[in-house]
Write a structure and sequence with these properties.
The structure holds 2 protein chains of 2 kinds. Chain A is built from 7 helices and no strands. Chain A has helices spanning 3-31, 36-39, 45-56, 63-77, 83-104, 107-133, 144-165. Classes of the chains: A mainly alpha, B alpha+beta.
Chain lengths: 169, 288
């Protein structure tokens, strides 16, 4: 019984480590330079990583973690603060509250749900950037939803490997 | 560190984050208080940018080390021809400059200020898909300032919007939120060019039906607004459409600068104060 708290703490520690590493890789992938044909379809890596951890560790990774990662993204993009943080917090919140049902879905149904969540994320952040920074939504703005949906199964498998290796839950 | 990872309590946590975000949005869009913390965190995040630039650096290394000798010879010859052409043109330029100064003196017009030019290399990162912006590897220490005009060897690229310790952000003229005062080179008609979010399309709104503008007209920066020096090429008009029952005609233009292909850009800085001071000193010296 006495080993319970320490094992709990180490599991939180490895979760913090795994989330940080995957968020770091996602940030690098977000700013990597791309050929023109891939540019608009490049997935929203950060939203995928936040959605994954909010799905698999819903009791630990919630709106706060989404907000912090979103704020880092805003620093990297030199955007106005608050918009992406709120967007990712919303993604984490929606995934948290539907995580039980989402985990029971097949991979196809999961891909569609992720597409819907990322569409909500892009709609919210696009509208808010319009309010605070005069951003205008163009048709190309939506293309990355398709990229994100297509990459979800592969990202899911890789992140599952990471989660197993770190023995989280 | 573990505090954000504490047990999730759903709505209350989301409500708190919502309030914090809204406060940050309002504070950051009205004041510059959050720029200090942003600069500190941006230094900590700079390894991400260097990691992200590795793939394109490797690609460039291979293309440069694998190019054949005849190709290099051809590009060398082209550069040399270009060099001699420009050199001979600049000979003429000097006499024109003298002539221009004399004419301005005759008209009692103020002398055109010289701009200082700084060469900057674009960073190999894809900054932000949703806004048309690029980052360059010059920062606070290099004398970059907000509002500085940026050109390439063809025309106007954009202006500096953020200056951080080791890098600066340039907003391109094609950004949907960017507008640039221009005039038509042919007849001096003044107007404004707006970005649309597409790399090869600019809009020229608010021209009425009897404005003298035709396809092929070159738009140059007019110097109004004080940000961009006057006379740099901006765009060529590609389409003029008159729609009946509309107050304004629809004009589109194509940027002249190689917005998506330049690796190097030039930052223009005004030495307005020092030059003006020199001029004043000269005038005082003459009157004595």
């Amino acid at each position: 019984m006495s080993s319970m708290p320490s094992s709990g703490r180490s599991s939180v520690g490895s979760l913090v480590f795994a989330v940080s590493v995957s968020a770091f890789i996602a940030l690098v992938l977000t700013v990597v330079q791309l050929p023109n044909w891939l540019f608009y379809f490049w997935p929203d890596w950060i939203a995928i990583v936040v959605a994954y951890w909010a799905l698999m560790a819903p009791r630990r990774v919630g709106p706060f973690v989404g907000f912090i990662i979103g704020t880092l993204l805003e620093v990297l993009f030199v955007r106005k603060f608050g918009v992406l943080g709120l967007g990712l917090a919303t993604v984490a919140f929606i995934v948290n509250s539907t995580s039980q049902q989402l985990r029971a879905l097949s991979i196809w149904q999961q891909m569609i749900s992720i597409g819907v969540f990322i569409a909500i994320f892009k709609l919210l952040t696009g509208w808010l950037s319009g309010l605070v920074a005069g951003f205008t939504i163009t048709p190309e703005y939506w293309y990355s939803i398709f990229g994100s949906v297509l990459i979800w199964p592969f990202a899911y498998i890789l992140l599952e490997e990471l989660r197993r290796a770190m023995r989280i839950r | 560190m573990a505090s954000p990872f504490r047990k999730n309590s759903g709505w209350s946590q989301f409500a708190l984050v919502f309030v914090i975000s809204v406060v940050m949005m309002i504070v950051d869009s009205r004041t510059s208080w959050l720029n200090g913390p942003r600069n500190v965190v941006s230094v900590a995040l700079s390894p991400i940018q260097s990691l992200a630039s590795i793939p394109s650096a490797i690609g460039r290394y291979f293309t440069s080390s694998l190019s054949a000798e005849p190709d290099l010879q051809i590009s060398y010859d082209n550069l040399r021809n270009e060099y001699f052409k420009l050199k001979s043109e600049s000979l003429l330029l000097r006499t024109l400059q003298e002539e221009n100064r004399d004419l301005r003196a005759l008209l009692a017009a103020s002398e055109r200020l010289k701009e200082k030019i700084t060469l900057a290399e674009l960073m190999d990162v894809n900054l932000d898909r949703d806004n048309h912006r690029v980052s360059v590897g010059l920062g606070i220490g290099d004398g970059v300032y907000i509002g500085q005009a940026v050109i390439d060897d063809q025309g106007v690229i954009g202006q500096v919007t953020e200056v951080m310790p080791f890098s600066s952000i340039i907003v391109l003229i094609t950004d949907p939120g960017h507008a640039l005062p221009v005039q038509i080179e042919r007849n001096g008609l003044r107007t404004v060019v707006h970005g649309t979010g597409s790399v090869s399309l600019l809009r020229v709104p608010f021209l009425n039906q009897n404005s003298d503008i035709v396809v092929g007209d070159v738009l140059i920066s007019s110097g109004m607004g004080g940000r961009f020096p006057n006379g740099y090429p901006v765009a060529t008009v590609t389409d003029v459409k008159i729609v009946e029952d509309e107050a304004f005609i629809r004009v589109t233009a194509d940027p002249i600068a190689k917005l998506d292909r330049s690796n190097h850009v030039l930052l223009l800085s005004r030495q307005a104060q020092t030059d003006a001071e020199k001029r004043v000193e000269e005038l005082i010296g003459e009157s004595n």
